[in-house]
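Re: beginner question about structure tokens

> Can someone show what the tokenized structure looks like for a real chain? I only ever see the sequence side.

Sure, here's an example I had lying around. Input first:
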Amino acid sequence: MIRLALCDDDAAQRAAAGKLLREYAAARPALTVKTSVFSSGQELLTADEESGGFDMYVLDIVMPEFSGIDLGIRLRELGRDGAIIYLTISPEYAVESYAARAFYYLIKPVDPAQLFQVLDQAAAALEKRRAACVAVHTREGQRLIRLDEILYAELLGRTVRYHLVGQTHLDTVTLRGSFLKETAPLLEDTRFFQCGASFLANLFYVTAVEKGFLRMDGGARVPLARGLTALARQRWQDYWLNGPKGG
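And the corresponding structure tokens:
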């Protein structure tokens, strides 16, 4: 099932978008889309915190109290990884939408075929994220971790610590090979970036690329090896412009 949130303060625009989303759900019965509709950013945030988040967010940008951009940034701060699709009457906010790591940006009046195509792409990305896992050998036995759970990995002595969403972590058994060999399966997916000999980060959870380190959701700072800042920034931008490409 896909849990989708629609938020627009304008009743007529909200009704029009809601009608399109119902048509999309009817045309894609295998996806089982459940849409929740909100008239303000605060209303959506309250429901989001109660439910634990949505898989997709279709947001208007120009709204009182919380703009769609501010709302998207707040959702990311809460650790929500759902695809954010912006609907707006003006292209002037396209650059700002990058701050919320938007999946797509559509101009009103929305073309139904284009919206459906974007929703299909978001649904495919969601399915891929849900399915992709890596096997980790721990002292308690082998564990499968979804790639979308991993914030970053670091080498600690002769073990690898996987830092996970929710401020938890998982440690491997003592390595027989190198850190690069242990984390190689992750690098087959373009959301992961090798930060140096001892760190690897999930670009989805990067909130800023600064000189010498990546800032992650939750405030963690992952060190970048000397000379990698420019490459990390380019890879991060490419990821959000082009989307993930798993192996």
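Each token stands for a local structural state, so reading them left to right follows the chain. The CA atoms of residues 40 and 200 lie 38 Å apart.
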